[in-house]
Write a structure and sequence with these properties.
Helices cover 35% and strands 33% of the residues. By secondary structure, it is α+β, with helices and mostly antiparallel strands. The protein has a seven-stranded mixed β-sheet with strand order 1-2-3-4-5-7-6, with helices on both faces. Strand 2 (53-58) and strand 3 form a beta hairpin.
Length: 147
């Protein structure tokens, strides 16, 4: 696996993250008939909270991002995007493991949503996430803290 790290996001990262989101989600959104080039970026801009977001860097270059937003009775794992060229190399698993270790220490429930049919769902299931509800577009998953 490549040498990777996390750094705190800043307001200046919003456009890079919006572009990354558009690239990563495009195949699944197109498959679902939901891709809109402006909307996919604007939804990120509207929801971006740098204080809860980390940038994933590989060898010093931007490779992805992840957010963990505190909410009532849970934390939401959001905006977990990894450049397609880095997917399948263990980086996503390593990042997710690190994020969940912190949640387990705090005895926190973690929630997320993933697009229907997304291959990312298998990653989340390997880490103990189970389906809570779903609709025609999203699958909402939850993970209870590990003892």
């Amino acid at each position: 696996m490549a040498d990777w790290g996390l750094r705190a996001a800043s307001v200046a990262d919003v456009e890079a993250v919006a572009e990354l989101r558009a690239v990563v989600l495009r195949p699944d959104l197109e498959r679902l008939g939901r891709y809109d080039e402006q909307r996919v970026r604007q939804r990120l801009r509207d929801a971006f909270t740098p204080e809860h977001t980390w940038m994933i860097e590989v060898d010093g270059a931007l490779a992805g991002c992840v957010a963990l937003r505190p909410a009532e009775h849970a934390c939401w794992l959001e905006h977990f995007y990894l450049e397609p060229s880095w997917q399948g190399r263990g980086i996503g698993s390593a990042v997710l493991s690190r994020m969940l270790e912190g949640c387990d220490r705090e005895d926190a429930v973690v929630r997320l949503n993933v697009l229907q049919g997304s291959s990312a769902r298998r990653l989340y299931e390997r880490y103990g996430f189970t389906v809570e509800t779903e609709d025609e577009v999203d699958v909402f998953m939850v993970r209870r803290p590990s003892s």
